[in-house]
Amino acid sequence: MRIVMIGSGYVGLVSGACFADFGHQVVCVDKDATKVNKLNAGGIPIYEPGLDELVARNVAAGRLSFTTELAGPVGDADVVFIGVGTPARRGDGHADLSYVYAAAREIGAALKGFTVVVTKSTVPVGTGDEVERIIAEENPDADFAVASNPEFLREGAAIEDFKRPDRIVVGIEDERARGPMTEVYRPLFLNQSPLLFTRRRTSELIKYAANAFLAMKITFINEIADLCEKVGADVQDVSRGIGLDNRIGSKFLHAGPGYGGSCFPKDTLALVKTAEDNGAPIRLIETTVAVNDTRKRAMARKVIAAVGGEVRGKTIGVLGLTFKPNTDDMRDSPAIAIVQVLQDAGAVVRGYDPEGMEAAKVVMPDITYCNSAYDVAEGASAVVIVTEWNAFRALDLSRLKAKMEQPVLVDLRNIYREDEVTRAGFAYSSVGRGTAGDPVAPTAD
Question: Which of 18, 28, 228, 263 is labelled catalytic?
Answer without folding.
Answer: 263
